[in-house]
Each structure stands twice: as structure tokens, then as C-alpha cells.
Design goal:
Radius of gyration: 23 Å
Distance between the termini: 60 Å
CATH topology of the largest domain: Alkaline Phosphatase, subunit A
Number of strands: 15
Number of helices: 19
Strand content: 15-25%
Structural class: alpha/beta
Largest sheet: 11 strands, mixed
CATH superfamily of the largest domain: Alkaline Phosphatase, subunit A
Length: about 525
């Protein structure tokens, strides 16, 4: 639909829209009322920034993600977008609510999302938007605030997946879900395109297209089975990190690139685990890790290739339907992930690769093509941004900030210079200790408090508390913990003061955990 046709159609519906919650604000501005932007929010699962060629990371000379890169070419690439709790369920809850995990109730993978709380889809829906989510949901409770949903039960399957469509009783949804033949990334896009084409034409839309890939177990489709087959994928420079000059937390963690962990997670799709292990076991340990890395990274990147193709399908539809000019297109991942850096895969740690989310945004009306932003932005900012563009007030309970000024190239004077992070699920997966910390533009301070507290699913075996400090300017790969270096003593004091300030600001003061306060006071 052409821009003028869209405005005319929306004008016919003005009366209906102006009776909504949105009307009190939006109807005061005829320009916003006539032309509220559509929103296409595309999110992958565990897609590292290094696996997008536009980010020019260590893989960029070998991989190609032309369709995702197009968003950087025609929009803005964010270099410092971070997750506030690097696992799937908590990140998705924070994106929906604009709140930290301790405020929205999803601190761990075991928590059930309270679907009665305020979310940006609910507010957009009340404002007259047609809202939909297709793909990965991963929040256990039924999606609310959506005119349409069709979501994977739990983690979902890569091949011939089941999806639960709105209208099927949620509690019985797993049994009554519909099975689709094919590859999950293609299927999610097929459903999204079908409902984009058949959506109400008199409403702006907000579509959440959320892919399962490239989450483990990295099952790729047949057409990409031979991609990268005859080449050696570059290794990160710290693949063989020996964890010297670091704390004990990373040494205890088990998410290592090796035969047992990496290959076990990828023992499907014709990779005969026992046969591969038998072959690799004959090699020296260093070569074993190299071979395991190649198997892992190629499978991962083949999943990424399918995502990029399907992003292209979505962008093509916007062009064909004359919707591109008035649609905000967002591409991101629910968190970062290690691609062999520090010899690791998965996420959870507060290290850069784990917390950095790719974020590319295109909106021709306000974003200068080819823009790059270096400011600290968070997953709790997404909800506020979408509401801002809809002309809606941002609820006081939301804890993020609208990114709209940054889209326009105008950094507000009060924009954050630091961010707060917390991982709650103590030792539940890969033996990663519970921790929290602060990241500024230059430094990162991490406190491994090592207690399960009352986090759902955490393992009730404490680990010794410890600190890590990294100077990201001099040590961008986080290879040297300088917490005990006297030269950084004043920096440590400043960061601890700011960390406590952020904990108070975001109402995560730990007052109900005397055992944690005691440990903190002992080693603070």
C-alpha cells in the first residue's frame, strides 16, 4: 500500500482509533494520527553480533548476511546494545515489559511469565494497532496483548515443528498444536507473511517474528548442509584461553568447546557422536578443540544463513507492499552468545560476547542510512521505543529509555553512561555462578556472589564470592582481571559506588537476602 493510500485508510478509521487509550495523546498531533508507523520486530535466538557481517567481527571476511546487513546500510547499527540477564526467558520478559528480571518476575528459565502485567503489545493493541507474534515465545504462560499468535511450545523443534495457534486452549495446546512440515525458520516466515498480507488494512501493525535459530542444537536445513564445507572458519584469537589472570568462575564453567559438550549438543543431523568422538580422540587435545570448533561453528552459521534468507523475504514483502517507508524494522537477538571466544559456547556470563545483542534498525523517516551508534542501550529500552513512536505515554513502571532520540542522531544529556546486569540461575546450567555487575564505556566490574537465594531452578550449592574488573579500552577481550591491581584501586571504588547506585535506582537492593548482604559486606 502506498503512503498516501495508507494515510487515507487510516483517516477513515480515525474515529475508532481516537476512542482508544492512544487517542488522548495521538489525536492531538494530526501528523502522528494520520501516519503511525508499523513495527516489524524480528528477533533470533542466540545470534551473536560477530555472526553478522555488518559488525565486522572476526568472522566477517568469511560469512555473508546480506539481508540483515541491508538494515545497517539503510538504517542504524548499534554497537553497544546489551541484555540485562543473558538467558532466553528473562530477556524476552524484559523486552515485553521494559523492566528488569526482578521486576517482571522472570529471573530464570524456570519462571512463568505473569501475562497480566503491562507490556508494549497490550498498549499498542489498545491504541488501535493490529498485534501478532509468530515463532518462539518461551515464556510458559499464554501470550496476551496479541490479536494473533502462533508460537512454538517451549523451545520448539527445528524440523516439522508444532505450533500453538490462538484459539487452541493454552493448557491443552501442546496436545492440540498443529504440526507443520518443513524447517522451522522457513515456517515461521511463511506464517508471518500470510498474516501480514491478510491483516486488517485499516490499522497500523506490530508484528513480532521471533526465530528459534541459531539456538543449540544448531540443526540446519538441507539446502545449507554443504555451506562452508570446504573452508576453515577463522578461530577467535582466544579460543585456547587458559583462564590465567581470571577468577575461578570461568574455570569452573563447563560450556567449553570440546568433544563432550559441543559435540554432544550437536549429535543430531547425521553427526554420529560416537564415531566423531572416536576419530577426534586420536588427536592431540589442541587439535581436538580445533575440530570441535569447526563442527560447531559451521552448524551455527548454517542456521544463521537460513535466518538471513528469511529476513530477506520479510523485507521484500515490505517493498512489494509499499510499506517500507513507514515501517520500523528491528533486527536483534534475545542475547549474545560465545562463538568460541574464551573457548566457550552458550552465554550467561557478563562477558562482552554473552551480553552484547546485535541491534539494527531501519526507519527511513527518521534514521540516516549507514548510521552507527556507540551509546549503551539495553533490551529494557525496546518497549519504551515502540510506545514513543505510537505516540503513547511511557508507563512509570518501565525502567528503560526510548531509543528514538538516538535514531534521530540526538543523544539526550541524561543518557546512561553505565548499565546494570544480573544473572540469577546459580549453577543450574554449565556451572555458571550467580553474579551481578556494572559496565561503563570503559570498565566492567563483576561480583560473583555465588548464592542460589530464592531463584527458581538455581542449584543450592554456593561458590566462593569473588570480583573481576576489566579495562575494556586496554583489554577488549577481557583476558586480564585487574581487580587486585593497585593502579585500579580508585576505579574499583568509583565503580562500586555506581553499582550500588544502579541497584537502588532499579530497586534491586537485596534487602531480603541477609546472607548475600553479609557476604557482600565481608569482601566489599
Amino acid at each position: 500500500m502506498k503512503r498516501r493510500q495508507f494515510c487515507k485508510t487510516l483517516g477513515i478509521a480515525a474515529g475508532a482509533l481516537c476512542t482508544s487509550v492512544f487517542s488522548n495523546n495521538a489525536c492531538k498531533s494530526s501528523s502522528r494520527m494520520k501516519q503511525p508507523p508499523n513495527i516489524l520486530f524480528i528477533m533470533a535466538d542466540d545470534h551473536a553480533a560477530a555472526a553478522i557481517s555488518a559488525y565486522k567481527g572476526f568472522l566477517s571476511s568469511f560469512i555473508r548476511t546480506p539481508n540483515i546487513d541491508l538494515l545497517a546500510k539503510e538504517g542504524m547499527l548499534f554497537k553497544n546494545c546489551f541484555v540485562t540477564n543473558s538467558i532466553c526467558t528473562p530477556s524476552r520478559a524484559s523486552i515485553l515489559t521494559g523492566k528488569y528480571s526482578h521486576k517482571n518476575g522472570c529471573r530464570t528459565l524456570n519462571d512463568v511469565f505473569d501475562n497480566t502485567q503491562l507490556t508494549f503489545p497490550k498498549l499498542l493493541q489498545k491504541a488501535g494497532y493490529y498485534t501478532a507474534i509468530i515463532g518462539k515465545w518461551h515464556l510458559k504462560s499464554e501470550p496476551t496483548g496479541f490479536d494473533y499468535y502462533n508460537v512454538l511450545p517451549g523451545q520448539g523443534r527445528y524440523f516439522d515443528p508444532h505450533l500453538i495457534e490462538k484459539g487452541i486452549p493454552w493448557q491443552r495446546g501442546r496436545k492440540e498444536s498443529k504440526q507443520y512440515k518443513g524447517y522451522v525458520t522457513d515456517i515461521i516466515t511463511d506464517i508471518a507473511l500470510e498474516h501480514l498480507k491478510n491483516r486488517p488494512q485499516n490499522k497500523p501493525f506490530c508484528f513480532l517474528v521471533h526465530y528459534k535459530a541459531p539456538h543449540d542444537m544448531w540443526e540446519y536445513d538441507k539446502k545449507h548442509a554443504h555451506l562452508y564445507e570446504d573452508i576453515e572458519i577463522p578461530e577467535p584469537e582466544n579460543l585456547f584461553d587458559d583462564y590465567q589472570n581470571r577468577g575461578e568462575a570461568i574455570k569452573r564453567a563447563t560450556q567449553k568447546i570440546d568433544m563432550e559438550e559441543t559435540l554432544f549438543l550437536h549429535k543430531t543431523q547425521g553427526h554420529q557422536f560416537d564415531n566423531v568422538r572416536a576419530k577426534l580422540s586420536k588427536l592431540p587435545p589442541r587439535e581436538q578443540k580445533r575440530r570441535a570448533y569447526q563442527i560447531f561453528i559451521k552448524a551455527y552459521l548454517r542456521c544463521v544463513a537460513s535466518i538471513d534468507e528469511n529476513v530477506g523475504r520479510l523485507l521484500d514483502y515490505l517493498d512489494e507492499a509499499n510499506l517500507a517507508e513507514n515501517t520500523i524494522v528491528v533486527y536483534t537477538s534475545d542475547q549474545g552468545v560465545f562463538l568460541g571466544e574464551h573457548g566457550l559456547f552458550d552465554k550467561r556470563f557478563m562477558y562482552e560476547e554473552s551480553i552484547r545483542m546485535p541491534l539494527l534498525v531501519r526507519f527511513p523517516k527518521e534514521i540516516e542510512p549507514g548510521s552507527i551508534n556507540n551509546d549503551i542501550v539495553l533490551n529494557i529500552d525496546f518497549a519504551e521505543t515502540f510506545l514513543d513512536y505510537a505516540g503513547l505515554p511511557i508507563p512509570s513502571e518501565m525502567q528503560g529509555q526510548s531509543l528514538r532520540p538516538l535514531f534521530q542522531g540526538k543523544k539526550p544529556k541524561n543518557w546512561r553512561n553505565s548499565m546494570y546486569y544480573r544473572y540469577w540461575m546459580h549453577r543450574a546450567h554449565f556451572n555458571v555462578a550467580a553474579h551481578y555487575g556494572i559496565r561503563t564505556n570503559r570498565y566492567k566490574l563483576i561480583f560473583y556472589y555465588g548464592l542460589p537465594l530464592d531463584a527458581n531452578g538455581a542449584i543450592p550449592e554456593p561458590t566462593p564470592p569473588e570480583w573481576e574488573l576489566f579495562d575494556l579500552e586496554n583489554d577488549p577481550n577481557e583476558m586480564r582481571n585487574v581487580y587486585h591491581d593497585p593502579a585500579y584501586a580508585n576505579i574499583v571504588k568509583q565503580l562500586k559506588t555506581e553499582l550500588l547506585h544502579l541497584k537502588v535506582k532499579f530497586d534491586d537492593k537485596d534487602d531480603k537476602y541477609p546472607e548475600l548482604i553479609k557476604i557482600r559486606n565481608q569482601i566489599w
